[in-house]
Specification:
The chain is globular. The chain contains 19 helices and no strands. By secondary structure, it is mostly helical. The chain has helices at 12-15, 42-53, 58-70, 74-87, 92-104, 108-121, 126-138, 142-155, 160-173, 176-189, 194-205, 212-222, 227-239, 244-257, 262-274, 278-291, 296-308, 312-325, 330-340.
Amino acid sequence: MKKNYLTFMLSFSLLFYWSCSDKSSTNNEQETPQTATLSGHPAIDKLTQQIAENPNRASLYANRGAVWFENENFDEGITDLEKAISLDSTKAGYYHVLADMYMDYYRSRLGLVTMEKAATLFPDRVPTLLKLSEFQMILQQHNDALFTLEQIRKKDPQNAEMMFMFGRVFKDMGRKEEAIGAFQSAVENDPDLLDAWVNLAELLAEKDSPLVGKYFDNALRLDSNNIEALHAKAYYLSNKKNDLDGAVKLYKKINTVDPQYVEGYYNIGLLYLDMDSLERAYQSFDIAVKYAPQYPDAYYHRGVAAEMMDNTEQAIADYKNVLNFDPDFAGAKAGLDRLQK
């Protein structure tokens, strides 16, 4: 099975098929459920109706919290997950998703506290300990993350995901040799860990290892459309191998997979600038600013391309746009001053 562990967010479609055996009371005198709705959202309305009929079923609150989360209604989602936990504190997944909501809502400390509580309640549950180590790493609590991972090693010394997380923590700490060793152990124990192959290739690229291409290919064999792997390989080709055409092809493939992946268009534009293909560069930056109209770097480089093509009016307009977003952007200031003189 193909696995991707770069992000800590779990799939909503899998997380919320909670067990129907909710540990809840049928006492009709308990608290009346929320009746808030998301205007025009049938899933919220349906779940709200189900909650009205079954006010003490924890999974219904968890499911509705998931939909709130998907729609970035964090306050409502947090309230629903907290309610689900109050009705049934035995579901580790509830804590995981609540922690994710806190993290996405810029309340990372509360997310960490939630995962610490989950680890206390489920001390032998490896996925919970893995998630706790990830939160600890994100918050730069590296020693705590290593301690948590050691607890997993004692329980399951061959766990590939634990080895992968060791690699991520070591990499974040700048301990690159240890990170390489951890990622190698991860793929030896589970060759389907795509992100371990990508991280391993990226670290070995810094050492100009002959294995880099092979490791990127191993990742892309697992998922030929994986955007992280394609982007990492494109970066490697352009910056380490000077294979600009090869990098352009990979970025174009990314934008075939995800037409709204702005970094793909932007990086293609940079490569075309390096190749003195000014019209193509301009067109790529033009697409980037259409998808991301508040992207100053894309405006700036579109201005550079326009200036190099003697399209002074467009270049001035782009440099001014950059300064509207970032008044201290030195390149745009210099470009504007140069052209207006």
